[in-house]
Specification:
heterotrimer, A alpha+beta (294), B alpha+beta (161), C alpha+beta (159), A: 294 residues, alpha+beta, Uridine Diphospho-n-acetylenolpyruvylglucosamine Reductase, domain 2, Uridine Diphospho-n-acetylenolpyruvylglucosamine Reductase, domain 3, Enolase-like, domain 1, four-stranded antiparallel beta sheet, B: alpha+beta, Ubiquitin-like (UB roll), 2 domains, elongated
Chain lengths: 294, 161, 159
């Protein structure tokens, strides 16, 4: 194994349009998509990833966008780069937890190269841009020569590195619904040093209705085989007067309900202990951002 | 052989009486009595981490016989930092200039710098390097340490070269 | 394997090359264009020793297949100075004793140059955060952060 060169061999293809790209995916075997390359090239160097065709989609300008549609839904195209999204004013205003996640990812040079769609398709259990997207009820559009279909983000991931995408499909759009009034969110990530991948991360979003929450989504990274939506834990927060005691109860439930593993970043013990702390912190911050008091 | 004899001397402004064996070094006596800012590096007079002031002059405490210091005055980096403005200036300059990485050479380095300044040290990088030539640093490459001492010399209005 | 004719605009000069599909930009820059300023450190986009600019943005050259860089405007560390006149970041690194072994320095000054193009008036926290993808084993970073702030100050004065 060497990281000095790319030891694997492949043909390089660069389609000019999405149509061309989808045709290649349909007609050829063993195609890898190259956008920023910050996961694919690394995996080719150290994790034995191979392909017969490396398909560079950076020529498809139509996929580089981040914009609101006329229904107030924010669409992020497959080629939108993390560093550009990090500076997007709409994301800053409407999806601050996502902006926070972007900012904490890797380093500036990686973010200048990498795409949000790539972070999704790499399907790491600790994908930082996925965790807040779960809280925002993101919807993904997958395209192929057979047409398009949509998948809610919490149904997209199957296992580490594995998504529901068929061999001929490509993720083309990530849609974030318009946040409701009185909604608040937070994202917290724990690492060894700043540019590291997270040991554990928590995203939380709530919608406040008076002194209660009428909606809550808590998501976590690095505690399961995929980024996880803690559905049961989130439901505990809804419909009750929000107090520090309720937050503590929900945080304890989060910690008790997860089954993390030991890995090269940290231990299951750490994850279980810190899940409670981060859930408490994230819920508190989200509640305050929703205009709630404690 | 542990015939401990009383040893009275001034350390960091206070008169102290320690029990020390005749062959103990000043370094060992200081560290045995909790003056842990004085570091033990090579213990053979090379590295300079043990540097303290003895009657106003920088000495290597690891090769100084403790009982020879009876009735004399010793100052360590920490004691000087609490009591001496020039040392405080040096300490601040070290922090500002990024002259501290692991920190192990720092107390001895600061005392050496204090000696240099007290003995008319000027803002001249070559002279400064001579003054700290008895203090080894494994981390910083010395440049920033020289920067800090130079800065203090300039602030004190010494000749600038 | 496929071969591709590409054009790279590096430091204002146009290079036309034929590259294999799996050749990496860092190796093309170093071994074929003899621009050895950009270093091979980790090879997996973590240490920052290979940092170059694509237009005004910092990129890791070890992570880019050369064929994917066709048509790019690339600046390497060799392209920062104006003849004999070092750019303000380079000069500040020297003035502030921010160089020990020097291996990380090309990546550091390239990233710092991008930083100041993006934000000409950074504070210490911004600089520390921006440089988190450039690792230095020697200096402890303090003087490097100071250098960037120093360069920012001098560039503002010059205006």
């Amino acid at each position: 194994m060497t990281t000095r060169i790319l030891a694997t061999e492949f043909d390089y293809l660069k389609p000019a349009t999405l149509e061309e790209a989808l045709k290649i995916l349909a007609e050829k075997e063993n195609v890898r998509i190259l956008a920023g390359g910050t996961d694919v090239i690394v995996k080719m160097k150290v994790a034995g990833m191979t392909c017969d065709y490396l398909m560079d989609i950076k020529g498809i300008d139509a996929l580089d966008y981040a914009k609101l549609d006329d229904k107030g839904v924010f669409h992020i195209g497959a080629l939108a780069k993390l560093s550009h999204l990090e500076k997007d004013p709409v994301i800053a205003e409407r999806y601050p937890a996502l902006k926070e996640a972007f900012h904490l990812m890797a380093s500036i040079s990686v973010r200048n190269m990498a795409t949000m769609a790539g972070n999704f398709c790499n399907a790491s259990p600790v994908a930082d841009s996925v965790v807040p997207s779960i809280c925002y009820n993101a919807v993904l559009t997958l395209a192929s020569v057979r047409g398009e279909r949509t998948v809610p983000v919490e149904k997209f991931f199957l296992a580490p590195g594995v998504t529901v995408m068929e061999k001929d499909e490509m993720l083309v759009d990530i849609a974030l619904p318009q946040p409701e009034a009185n909604s608040g969110d937070a994202f917290i990530k724990k690492t060894r040093v700043r540019p590291d991948i997270a040991k554990i991360s928590v995203g939380a979003r709530v919608i406040r209705d008076g002194e209660k929450a009428c909606f809550c989504r808590i998501a976590m990274g690095a505690i399961a085989a995929t980024p996880a939506y803690l559905e049961e834990t989130s439901a505990l927060f809804v419909g009750k007067k929000v107090t520090p005691e309720l937050i503590a109860e929900v945080a304890a439930h989060a910690s008790a309900s997860i089954r993390p593993i030991d890995d090269n970043r940290t231990t299951a013990e750490y994850r279980v202990a810190i899940a409670e702390v981060l859930t408490k912190d994230a819920l508190t911050e989200a509640w305050r951002n929703a205009g709630g008091e404690l | 052989m542990s015939n401990l004899l009383p040893l009275t001397l001034k350390v960091n402004g206070e008169e102290k009486t320690f029990l020390a064996s005749p062959h103990a070094s000043l370094l060992r006596v200081l560290r045995d009595n909790y003056y842990w800012d004085v570091k033990c590096g090579c213990e053979e007079g090379d590295c300079g981490t043990c540097t303290v002031l003895l009657d106003g002059k920088a000495v290597k405490s690891c090769i100084t016989l403790a009982h020879n210091c009876a009735g004399h005055e010793v100052w360590t980096d920490k004691g000087l930092g609490y009591n001496d403005e020039i040392t405080r200036m040096i300490q601040d300059a070290f922090v500002e200039c990024g002259s501290i990485q692991c920190g192990f050479c720092t107390p001895g380095m600061i005392v050496a710098a204090k000696h240099y300044i007290d003995h008319g040290g000027i803002a001249d990088r070559k002279e400064i390097r001579k003054a700290i030539s008895g203090n080894l640093c494994r981390c910083t490459g010395y440049n920033k340490i020289v920067d800090a001492i130079y800065k203090v010399a300039v602030e004190l209005g010494r000749e600038v070269r | 394997m496929s071969k591709h004719d590409i054009t790279l605009n590096v430091n204002g000069k146009k290079y036309e090359l034929t590259v294999e599909s799996n050749e990496l930009l860092l190796n093309v820059l170093r071994e074929r264009l003899y621009l050895t300023g950009s270093k091979y450190g980790c090879g997996i986009a973590e240490c920052g020793a290979c940092t170059i600019l694509k237009d005004d943005e910092s990129y890791f050259a070890c992570m880019v297949p050369a064929v994917a860089a066709d048509g790019w405007n690339i600046t390497t560390v060799e392209g920062l100075a104006d003849g004999d006149k070092l750019n303000p970041v380079q000069q500040a690194f020297i003035d502030n004793s921010a160089i020990q072994c020097g291996f990380c320095v090309p990546g550091m000054v390239v990233t710092s140059t991008a930083l100041l193009r993006e934000n000409p008036d950074p504070d210490e926290d911004f600089v520390k955060d921006y440089l988190r993808g450039n690792f230095c084993r020697c200096t402890g970073y303090v003087a490097m952060v100071k250098s960037v702030l120093d360069a920012a100050g001098k560039m503002k004065e010059a205006k």
